[in-house]
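Dear Dr. H.,

I hope your travels went smoothly. While you were away I took the liberty of generating a structure for the chain from your last submission, since the lab meeting agenda had it listed for discussion. I wanted you to have the full record in hand beforehand rather than looking at slides cold. The sequence, exactly as received, is reproduced here:
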Amino acid sequence: MQLRIKNLRPIQISRTLTLALLLLAFGAQAQVIVDTTQVTTLPVVEKVVDTVKPPFKRFKAEGVSAVIGEYIVLDSDIDKSYIELRQQGISIEDVSRCQLLGKLMEDKLYAHHAKVDSLQVSDVDISQRIEQQLQYIIGEFGGDEEKVAKFYKKESIAELRSELFETNKTLMLAAEMQRTVVENIEVTPEEVREFFFAIPDDERPIFSAEVEVAQIVVEPKITEEAKRDVVDRLNTYRRDIVENGSSFATKAVLYSKDNSASRGGLIEGIKKNSPYDKVFKDVAFSLLEGETSEPFESDFGYHILKVDKVRGQELDVRHIILFPEVSQKEIDAAEAKIDSIRTQIVEGNLKFKDAARQFSDEKETRNNGGQLVNPVTFDTRFDLTKMDPTLSAQVYNLAEGEVSKVFTDRDFRGRSKFKMLTVTKKFDEHPSDFSRDYEKIKELALKEKQIREIEKWQNTKINETYVNVNQDYFDCEFASDWVKK
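The corresponding predicted structure, in token form, is as follows:
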């Protein structure tokens, strides 16, 4: 039974740790760990065999820890991972080189067989992920792109972006391969029951305290004058481009307000089913190659758009996006409004859920009385130990039914909005109970079954793959047979 419990708690690399490893592993292609799938957290798996003919000529390379198919893991990847973990404030006391090497090899095995099986990942999805990563990294350096490039020993952000692309592509292929392996795994109610009652009472998991949270959001109004000003500016840029031959890319670099500005507003590989705003896609697919649109509004802002290239059912486009300015008068009015709403709720004259339906400006939550949905589990419960720190700080000390103070938040446009939260229900930390916690227990049972399946897949695929581990790591206690004893 101890083995069962151990398998449920595999060596895990946290999201912060995996991001750290991602950002420092640019020595060889795709030499990092990152949490790129929401399928499940699977165990570190490590195994090596040197019985399959390599797909390339053998060579001796200084500092190579392992070769998996066409992928290489360097000693320096592990070294740099440790450095970054320290800089991130993450304890490395219990993280061994063997563990990191094992996880790196596991990622390479997935990626290798994803290519063998012709699995595909979207370049658009990769680019979106990179922009999110760069936005986070640049923010950590106070917005100084030059410092970011210097820190990662790159000549420019463009060079960093290029290497991030290759790294992310490999990792997303690995995630897609893992998803494919476990996608059809299911557990029956009887399997869940057998799983739970096979665990001794004193070894059953303890579930953390959880909360259900609702919110009310009030955004400052945008005046018609501010909207007209944005449209007028976009029309000015468009006339200069269309009538005077000015460069759209240059205008985007100078004036556009999103991360694509540094690339001249370029967004590549848009398809009709790509996860972009519908209005944005409709405008893009209504234009001819080289044509520039009139100003238009999407859920994200005001744009002009040019089709750079048509490639079958895909488009490469450039766009300039602007956001209307919000006056201080409207900011003050929004703050006064939410303060008034809070007063009515606290005094018992208005229920929180009714106020959310009537006054909240966030359409995703207002129809549910402001109730938030956990983006990981897709239910309404949030584990207090795993919540977003900003959200956790606002609700941690709230009693059930208590309303937080009003606080200011900022959206992706940098625009202020005002929020207040309430805890609609609290669940104390407690030992697992089969009836009360059935869904959580089912998730654990499913993970264990997925672990068995993935271990079976790995043990099979390792024997079909050229794998060579440096003899310095032969004594590692790998979970799988990476090194034939």
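Two observations you may find useful: Confidence is low (pLDDT under 50) at residues 1-61. The radius of gyration is 26 Å.

With kind regards,
E. W.
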